[in-house]
Amino acid sequence: MYKFLLILTTITTFIMCQTNGNKGTSASGDGKFAGSAEKFKTICSSCHGANVDVFVDRQWKHGSHRDSLIKSITNGFPEKEMPAFGQVFKKEEIAEMAEYILNSIEDAKRYKFDGKPKSNVFVQSSMTVKLDTVVSGLKNPWGIAFLPEGELLVTDRNGDFYRVDKNRQKTLIEGAPKVLAEGQGGLLDVELHPKFAENGFIYLSYSKFRDSAGGKWSTTAVMRAKLSGNKLTEQKDIFVAQPYQKTRHHYGSRLEFDKNGYLFVTVGDRGQHDALLPQKLNNDMGKVHRMHDDGRIPADNPFVKNDTARKTIFSYGHRNPQGMAMNPTTGAFWTNEHGPRGGDEINITQAGKNFGWPVISYGINYDGTILTPYTKKDGMEQPLHYWIPSIGVCGATFVTGDRYKAWKGDFLVGSLRFEYLNRCKIEGTKVVKEEILLKNIGRLRCVEMGRDGYIYVSVEQPGYVFRLLPVE
Q1: Which CATH fold would you assign to the domain 121-471?
Q2: Phi and psi at residue 6, to the nearest 5°
Q3: Which pLDDT belongs to residue 29?
Q4: Considering Cα of 279, then 283, then 289, then 292, what sign does the dihedral take?
Q5: Span 371-381, mean pLDDT?
Q6: Which has the higher per-residue pLDDT, 43 or 469?
Q7: Contact predicate 356/317, CB 8 Å
Q8: Of the candidates 102, 203, 97, 199, which has an alpha carbon nearest to the alpha carbon of residue 143?
Q9: Out of 13, 252, 348, 380, which could bridge 266 as a Cys pair, Cβ 3.0 to 4.6 Å?
């Protein structure tokens, strides 16, 4: 009943504004559907979300054809608390609204592509690249790291940890942590210590678990160990996120070192947004953490003097950050994180900042209901960029060097959902253009710049690691 009254109040306000000559401006500009865009923003967004693009994910109960939409808007669905608009708007206004929705749906389908790749050569408008297979026979490759002599380390979510030599032969490394390879959990990211050549330390993030009366509980943990040949020694967990959870998703789990040798770790909300855990500082969920290379807490972390806060917290209000890369120009960390249905984000992580989840979001619930009516709020950071519909962001890197001149300085993001590589052209701190690369390559989990100056990507099911070779 509350929704019904809210909509009627909004309609009355909108009509009064129109009568007083305040026609407003559309967020989509003064194009063909400017009027419908304004009506949607003012009236429909209270139940359907702020962006009409969410309809691309809608499970239509009453048909998505033009006539069906016109009928739905005209007659409403009182049992679903949607009022009839037939007495509020003219027939032509309702028809235009239906066209506006359908047009937005078609535009949002730009991420869906037909057919599998027919060759390992991908011709894009900016550059042609060829896939060079580095390793195959994996299940779900999650993280990639590059050893000084040209070898690779690759994690497989099922718990396997591989060393790939120069002949592209993979060997199982002994001593990896035991993981809970269920849901989104398992063996996740891998990172080398900045002074690996001197100390041999590597870092692995994973889903650590413990048995209890209610079954297995799990959390995001980071193990430090020494790599000696094909064996790990001196294993030690330097970070274990608290508290453990029953859920099997949203572990986050990217690892990166900054220029000063601090280790950054992302941890997802573990699906606990209803409890507002990402907004509370007394837990590690939905946070980016910062620590010394041995897990000690830096004295200048933003919440070290807060008696009730977890001291490793660097930023908070995150949902599930699964991509993180350091901007080579500024040294700042850029992250990408999964939204719900809509609202995948790119953020620039900053000390002590609140990135809003789940109080603000550009997405909606998976069942189509409104998660939050707010996309902005004082004291909460806006995303640098966001996607509707969600593309399933994962992995991130900045393009450096001169091998990819058309992409130099750009931010690359993997898409799990639509199976491609997303190129974000960057000017300062703005995404000014996007290009879809490697269409239908597979669920792209990781993207990294190698020591050799080439871009490497991992894809899932079946699992491969590819190197991208520019084609002149």
Answers
A1: Neuraminidase (2.120.10)
A2: -60, -45
A3: 38
A4: positive
A5: 95
A6: 469
A7: yes
A8: 203
A9: 252
Give the start-to-end residue ranges of the domains of the chain: 2-110, 121-471
- Across the range 119-136, mean pLDDT stands at 96
Does the pLDDT at position 14 exceed 50?
no
- Among 394, 416, 410, smallest CA distance to 455 is for 410
Please answer whether residues 103 and 95 qualify as being in contact, where contact means their C-beta atoms are separated by less than 8 angstroms.
Answer: no
Residue 462 has pLDDT above 90, yes or no: no
Mean pLDDT, to the nearest integer, of 323-329? 97
Q: Residue 71 corresponds to which tokens in the numbers above? A: 């009928």
Q: For residue 333, give the nearest of 320, 315, 358 by alpha carbon.
A: 315
Strand order in the sheet with 333-337: 321-326, 333-337, 344-348, 385-387
Topology annotation, domain 2-110: Cytochrome Bc1 Complex; Chain D, domain 2 (1.10.760)
Examine residue 177 and say whether the peptide bond preceding it is cis (omega within 30 degrees of 0). Answer: no
Question: Contact at 8 Å (CB) between 453 and 470?
Answer: no
Q: Tokens 């992302």, residue?
A: 266
Mean pLDDT to the nearest integer, 367-374:
85
pTM of the complete model? 0.83
For the chain, give the number of residues: 472
Tokens representing 195? 């002074």
* Percent of the chain at pLDDT exceeding 70: 86
Active site residues: 250
Other CB atoms within 10 Å distance of the CB of residue 166: 9
| Cα 71 → chain centroid | 36
Contact 253, 283 (CB under 8 A): no
pLDDT of residue 276: 95
